[in-house]
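Bench notes, afternoon.
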Amino acid sequence: MSDNKQGFDTLALHAGYDPDPTITLGLGQGAPTGIPVYRTTPYKFKNTEHAANLFKLKELGNIYSRIMNPTNSILESRYAQLEGGHPLSGLAVSSGTNAIFYAIINLASEGDNIVAARALYGGTFTIEPSTIHTVQPITNALVKFVDAENPQNFVTAMDEYVLLVEYFIIAVSLVTYRLFSFFSYSKTRAFFCETVSNPALEICDLEEISGLAHENGVPLIADSTFSTPYLCKPFEFGVDIVVRPCNGEKVSSLTKWIGGHGACLGGIIVDKGEFNWGAGKHPLYDEPDTSYSGMRWGHDLPEELAPLAYILRARTVPLRNLGGCMSPDNAWMVIQGIETLSLRMERHCENSMKVARHLEAHPDVAWVRYPGLPSDPQHHKSQKYLKGTGEYKAYRNLKMTVPIINVVTITLIHYAGGPMVVFGIKSANAKETGQKFIDNLKLFSHVANVGDVRSLAIHPASTTHSQLSEDAQRNAGCPPDMIRLSIGIESIQDIIADLDQAISVANFLQHMEA
């Protein structure tokens, strides 16, 4: 974990990059305050010993841009510190889906499994509750999906095998006595969930799920795309690994609210650095790695690097061998977005709360889901995990000595999370009406993405979750009439006006066809 006590906004502007004015660039000394983009493939070594030490992990440094790049390193360090992690605990990759894939294959192999919440983004897994599906054809590891609203379901879904071992034989005269021992073990390697699910907006009880994971010797991996480290820091609730996409995919997404502009792809994995990978529960960390000089990742690293075992293996095995690296140009663009993350999230959340309240009172709206609403079933968890998702008011009374003014009441309104709203329109054919609503939006963009500064909308049942049956969609928290809104930072009156006119037109067209 990071010991950095600087505030969130200070880290967002300065973490990971300290310009060195003593280096010589161009005509002389003086380092740029703006972060450089290092468009290079290889790096020149100091000598043969230096090169050998880098490859043996005896020291850290740049080898090749498929594995590391100075611009990417600044992003990795800055984002890891925003999550509360070690400055070296981040790994940027080419997309959010790539981040999830690497996070899983970095701890599970053929025959292993993970237990995942069933309410996930449609592009993350093909969700079919109570069924086991192949998540990665390379390793043939499996995923078991459970209802995360009851955290105990994760433990129930873990497999357990009993191994009968004959460990001693005693021969007495002509009679042989065989002694047996029974050992139980599990091939479940991790739990996986989303902090706030897409699009159901279910909030996982991270503290409870991580506690159960640790009791059973496995880490909890959390995709925190919908919350960002500004609203929720999963490490504070026991999560071991955070993944986030930088684009329109969902995992460790940097290009959603983190980048904010929808102009680049990228994902990131951040390791808390406290899980014991050498405890015998993860063979990939206990057995010699033939792809890396027989390294036992949970045992053989130098003491100062041991807390980074997971992220170092992710960099030097999956990333090195599969090559899903992030370009330095994309890393640079994400960094620009990070600098204004807190400012944008406040406006996203403020606008989202106003939209949710407006839709809740709208006569043509059948239902609204937004964790910031007191009526929402996830509201109690939003108070704990999303800084209260929505608004809260704090009152402070100041007694004055001026006779005319005895008490001054200052009202502070803080909007702290919840940049997404989902709802359904009242209609005999709600699915078709929802599609007509999408087709008649003017300000909102109809795209398969979230987290842009611009307002976005989509009908999940016919797009992002269309590969699922209607029953599977409902089990994933995605009913056929659901409309997903990613609320931008435009003027709120314009956002609401666009929603109202689209609802009106959709209902009119539906009535005309009836």
